[in-house]
Write a structure and sequence with these properties.
The chain has 613 residues and is an alpha/beta fold. The chain has four domains: 193 residues, Rossmann fold (3-Layer(aba) Sandwich); 191 residues, Rossmann fold (3-Layer(aba) Sandwich), CATH 3.40.50; 101 residues, Winged helix-like DNA-binding domain superfamily/Winged helix DNA-binding domain (Arc Repressor Mutant, subunit A), CATH 1.10.10; 78 residues, Orthogonal Bundle (DNA polymerase, domain 1).
Length: 613
């Protein structure tokens, strides 16, 4: 006897639920159409890039429909992150896997049968166990969500044999809709997913593969460690992943970075499962900044504030590369994807072709050739990736890759650098880059006025560049060692090297600053013309970290970086103003609203800034 999908005659208002539980007031592209399809009882296949909001496509229907939604997920860490996030938002969800005791498992099952949960997360092995399937058939199942659905296809880059058994779900629950979701799948893999899960008559939804907030760049593999160290110094305090091709490379790079003062862990399959879990936990909780890893790391990571993904070695194929870079910027803020490339890496990849069948070898060779063509191409990198997945890309220039923004020559930045360095000096070396840029651009915000900095000789002398261009120049000065970040608030101070430009007449040549192309800078987001208050943002991040540590949670489970950035722009002073911030749902407002409001109000009293009621 199979269960049929129970549904309400009039589902609750989806926008009201979206705001109440998730703190959003509108949907991202295709989300609403997917949700409507699933709630109507139809199957759906969803191809949506990482960070596009796939999870909401089954989490919101779970709240709209009577009964239980079963989510099949391949990794324990991924399940735990999602369940923790849902619980923090007030959504009754749980998981059953090998990480919990038999006693706890029995208690959760008992609560499940009493209607205490709306979502149940399972690994495919657990769902397809004979005894467990019998239990599931007694539950009022409303929806099956198959996450990371590309795992079901032997043509995919991450095939898992246990996923193949999921096709039996359709036979046992013929009236329950199935939604299959993936971020990366070629046409061949898409067809295989649909066939294997028996959802040929379901609706197909495909979002664009273009991640507009990701900046793609390929660098020559020369003095790689020197380039890497310079880049990481300019990204102080930000989270990132560095992918290497071998365990030995991860450990060698970890040792070098640690000796240079970076907080970093290596991660590879040669570590014990306990040690891998410990290191992954340290990364998602912001206790270490960097993870140097093989591709064994990342699939179970739901961390939205990864600001850069670096490939130290050439990936084996474009599909895997796209998925790995997709772990950056899941919160939609601007993030970097760097690839260090030398043609010699191609031969290192090909070395592992031995032992493959002729067909396997031919496929692997074509895949690595595609990767090399990508690395050596002068075309738009977003266009190359989109077209690999069968998407038509018509933009002339994306403005977010090296080939579309690559400077043809250096420019004499001496005068601009002197202005920037002089402004740091004259304002007392007590402020961050955003503040210095505001002074140079002649901003009349209350903080600059109250500090008396409208009378500085450097006030308003930088109007030849936009704020984004000045911030880009600041990053180049940081990378070149002319200024330094100091303290937890990343205050800018002059280095001994700056004297050469300020006083000794040294000419300074830098890469030309990018022209404004309509792309909003996520390194210095604006809202209604107001820049992020970096000092307040840092204070809010520290508060979030303390609260998260007290509850043994990843900080992003409490609020995302994007939410904290909006708080630092809007500066809400009341519960109602705080509730308007994107990502602040009702439960999080109750749990954390007061403590974050207190921090904002305390900051405003000291800084003299204004807030919003």
């Amino acid at each position: 006897m199979t269960s049929s999908p129970p549904r309400t005659a009039a589902p609750p208002d989806k926008l009201a639920l979206l705001t109440k539980y998730f703190g959003f007031t509108s949907f991202r592209p295709i989300q609403e159409a997917v949700i409507d399809t699933v709630v109507s009882g139809a199957d759906a296949f969803v191809l949506m890039p990482t960070g596009g909001g796939k999870s909401l496509c089954y989490q919101l229907p779970a709240l709209m429909m009577e009964g239980i939604t079963i989510v099949v997920s391949p990794l324990i860490a991924l399940m735990k992150d999602q369940v923790d996030a849902l619980t923090e938002s007030g959504v009754p969800a749980t998981l059953l896997n090998s990480s919990i005791t038999n006693t706890e498992s029995s208690e959760r099952l008992s609560k499940l049968f009493r209607g205490g949960y709306k979502l149940l997360y399972l690994a495919p092995e657990r769902l397809m166990m004979d005894g467990f399937l019998e239990l599931v058939q007694k539950l009022p199942i409303s929806l099956f969500a198959i996450d990371e659905a590309h795992c079901i296809s032997e043509w995919g880059h991450d095939f898992r044999p246990e996923y193949r058994k999921l096709k039996d779900v359709r036979k046992l629950f013929p009236k329950v809709p199935v939604i299959a979701l993936t971020a990366t799948a070629t046409e061949r893999v898409q067809e295989d997913i649909v066939k294997q899960l028996g959802i040929q008559r379901g609706k197909m939804f495909k979002a664009s593969f273009v991640r507009k907030n990701l900046y793609y760049e390929v660098r020559p593999k020369q003095e790689t460690y020197k380039q890497l160290k310079t880049y990481l110094k300019s990204r102080k305090g930000e989270s990132g992943i560095i992918y290497c091709s071998s365990r030995k490379n991860t450990e060698t790079l970890e040792e070098k970075l640690q000796s240079d003062g970076f907080k970093v862990h290596a991660y590879h399959a040669g570590l014990t499962s306990e040690e891998r879990s410990r290191r992954q936990d340290a990364f998602i909780k912001d206790n270490v900044q960097l993870m140097v890893a093989t591709i064994a790391f990342g699939m179970g990571i739901d961390k939205p504030n990864i600001r850069f993904v670096i490939h130290h070695d050439l990936p084996k194929n474009l599909e895997g590369y796209y998925q790995e870079t997709g772990r950056a910027g899941r919160d939609s803020l601007e993030s970097d994807c760097l690839l260090f490339y030398s043609y010699g890496d191609k031969m290192k990849v090909e070395y592992f072709f031995d032992g493959k069948t002729a067909e396997q070898k031919a496929l692997a060779q074509e895949q690595v050739n595609q990767m090399v063509r990508y690395a050596e191409s002068t075309q738009c990198r977003h266009k190359l990736l989109a077209e690999y997945f069968g998407e038509v890309y018509t933009a002339e220039a994306c403005g977010m890759c090296d080939n579309c923004t690559k400077p043809k020559e250096e420019f004499d930045a001496t005068v601009a650098a002197q202005k920037f360095l002089s402004c740091i000096k004259r304002s007392g070396e007590r402020f961050g880059a955003t503040y210095i840029v505001d002074v140079l651009c002649g901003s009349d915000n209350s903080r600059i006025v109250s500090n008396g900095h409208t009378s500085l000789s450097t006030y308003g002398i930088g109007k030849e560049f936009s704020k984004r261009q000045w911030l880009e120049l600041a990053r180049q000065l940081l990378a070149g060692g002319y200024v330094e970040h100091v303290g937890e608030y990343n205050v800018l101070q002059l280095s001994p090297k700056s004297r050469e430009v300020l006083y000794d007449g040294k000419k300074l040549f830098l890469k030309p600053l990018k022209k404004e192309s309509g792309t909003v800078s996520k390194s210095a987001p604006t809202l209604g013309g107001a820049a992020v208050d970096e000092t307040l943002f840092t204070r809010l991040r520290l508060l979030r970290k303390r609260l998260a540590d007290e509850q043994n949670l990843p900080p992003y489970i409490i609020f995302s970086d994007a939410t904290l950035r909006e708080m630092s722009i809007q500066k809400p002073l009341s519960q109602s103003a705080m509730h308007k911030i994107s990502g602040v749902g009702e439960r999080k407002l109750q749990m954390y609203g007061k403590v974050f409001l207190d921090e904002i109000i305390s900051y405003i009293k000291v800084s003299g800034r204004s807030g919003s009621l």
